[in-house]
Amino acid sequence: MFKKLNPILHSELRLAIVSYLVANGKSDFNELKEVTNATSGNMSVQLKKLEKANYIKISKGYLNNYQHTAVQITSEGLKAFEEYVEAIKKYIG
């Protein structure tokens, strides 16, 4: 029996964000926007969904007098990603 794929991670942009954070640990809004080719609005919406699921932590502040949004994967987000990858492996295995 196949495990249902996590609907939070089964979105192209959210999966790209979490995958990037798994590889890098943390990032910021502009870097994530650049590596995913997302618009600011779409990035904001997807980050809020991931934060609501407790898969990421968002910290807002200032860096060099500019607003800065830091994004970091949580242990819950890492676990969800690992489970998602295992589920995918079962589908293709």
Q: What does this entry look like structurally?
A:
The protein is α+β, with helices and mostly antiparallel strands and 93 residues long. The chain has one domain (12-92): Winged helix-like DNA-binding domain superfamily/Winged helix DNA-binding domain (Arc Repressor Mutant, subunit A, Orthogonal Bundle). It contains four helices and three strands, in the order H-E-H-H-E-E-H. The protein has a three-stranded antiparallel sheet with strand order 1-3-2. Strand 2 (56-63) and strand 3 form a beta hairpin. The chain starts with 11 loop residues before the first helix and ends with a helix.
**What fraction, in percent, of the residue positions are helical?**
55-70%
Write out the strand line-up for the largest beta sheet, numbering strands in chain order. 1-3-2
Strand percentage = 15-25%
Order of helices and strands: HEHHEEH
Low-confidence stretches: none
- Please provide the count of β strands: 3
Terminal-residue CA separation:
13 Å
Query: So what's the CATH class?
Result: Mainly Alpha
Major pleated sheet: 3 strands, antiparallel
Shape: elongated
What is the second-level CATH architecture?
A: Orthogonal Bundle
CATH homology-level superfamily: Winged helix-like DNA-binding domain superfamily/Winged helix DNA-binding domain
Taken together, the total number of domains comes to 1
Radius of gyration: 14 Å
